Amino acid sequence: MPDLTGQLNRTSSYATSFGGLSDIWRCIWHKNGSNTQVAVKSIRSQALDEKDVKKKNRRLLRELKVWSRLRHDNIVPLYGTVSGFGQFVSLVCPWYDNGSLSGYLESHSETLSIIRRFQLLSDVSAGLQYLHSCSVVHGDLTGSNVLISSDGRAHLSDFGLSVIAVEFVGMSYFTSALNGTVRWIAPELLAIPEEEGATAIPTPNSDIYSFGCILFQVLTGKPPYYEFKRDAQVVVAISLGTQPSRPELPVIFDHHWSFIKDCWSIKDRRPSSQQVDEYIKSQLYFLQHDTSSPD
After folding, report:
1. Under CATH, domain 8-94 is a member of which superfamily?
2. Where does the chain hold its CATH 1.10.510.10 domain(s)?
3. What is the 3-state secondary structure (H, E, C) of 238-267?
4. Which of 170, 219, 232, 285 is deepest in the core (most CB within 10 A)?
5. What are the distances in angstroms from CA 228 to CA 14, 164, 285?
6. Is the peptide bond before 250 cis (omega within 30 degrees of 0)?
7. Would you state the torsion angle of the CA atoms of residues 292, 293, 294, 295, taken in this order, to the nearest 10 degrees?
8. What is the pLDDT of residue 56?
9. Strand, helix or coil for residue 115
10. What string of DSSP letters covers 66-94?
11. Confidence category of residue 95, pLDDT binned at 50, 70, 90
12. Which residues are bridge partners to 137 per DSSP?
């Protein structure tokens, strides 16, 4: 995996955006005489001694090596790593001008047709199935970790990083959920572990729950649990077994709502990523060939 240290220039003195556990920098990569816009993601952490930093960097690089080998149209490519943006090595990926799925839906929700929405969902389901076929669990599938390219395609990013970030910062999923991802996290990951110090580990089943939340978000233009303004309220709702409520508007067709509920069922009864991808693509095919459906 290439070390791009010394090949990047920051476009500003400060990070462009801040995630729950990381910072994003917009940079220019000087490559073979041309300039390419890239995003540099650095994992935030508390102060560590040099020995601990080296140990965690080795762990991070092992995980990133898996990402660097992945090749799929709906997976954000990892160009390499870079030092100098924090205590740990940082990731270098393409810069997506259309930003995240959440931001894209906020900006375009009024104009997106049902076909266009299912095209986005088809991209997400295809990327997720590919990850699972490579024995990779995403672990943090949210509207912020799906990026939209200039041609309007959706690409999955940051898979596997949530577990590392939680380890590095030394917190549980329950605590990290309050950093803005709780609306997409499977309930079993928020359960208080029986053993002290143990932490819940994401699985393909928990990814499917999160996909159900993405499906909800794309069809409605609203995040799951939109009726609650604060994430702490969402945590309480999940602890009580309350699932996101079905909005009156926009209308979600019964068969789509039924499939969302399947994704939110108890973990052993959720569909596989292959079944999810087949369902989404069958719905897209039907919409594209239904003469009564709006474009």
Report:
1. Phosphorylase Kinase; domain 1 (3.30.200.20)
2. 101-289
3. HHCCCCCCCCCCCCCCHHHHHHHHHHCCCH
4. 219
5. 32, 29, 34
6. yes
7. -120
8. 85
9. helix
10. HHHT---TTB----EEESSSSSS-EEEEE
11. very high
12. none
Torsion over CA: 162, 165, 169, 170 (sign): positive
What percent of the chain stands above pLDDT 70?
89
Instruction: Render pLDDT for 222-280 as a digit per residue (tens, 0 to 9).
Output: 999 999 999 889 989 998 999 999 999 999 999 999 999 999 999 999 999 999 999 99
In terms of Cα–Cα distance, which of 219, 225, 223 is closest to 255?
219
Write the single-letter amino acid at 187.
Answer: P
Query: Does pLDDT of 200 surpass 80?
Result: no
What's the pLDDT at 169? 62
**CATH code, residues 101-289:** 1.10.510.10
Which pLDDT does position 114 carry in this prediction? 95
| CATH 3.30.200.20 residue ranges for the chain | 8-94
pLDDT digits (tens, 9 = 90+) for 6-43: 999 999 888 888 766 788 999 999 988 899 999 999 98
Residue 25, helix vs strand vs coil: strand
Tell me which of 131 and 86 has the higher pLDDT.
131
CA gap 131, 156 in Å, rounded: 9
For the question of residue 207 being annotated catalytic, the response is no
- Spatial contact of 216 and 183, defined as CB atoms under 8 Å apart: no
- Cα–Cα distance measured from residue 222 to residue 217, given in angstroms and rounded to the nearest whole number: 5
- Of 3, 73, 97, 140, the active-site residue reads 140
Tokens of 53: 């930093």
Whether 106 and 99 have beta carbons less than 8 Å apart is answered as no
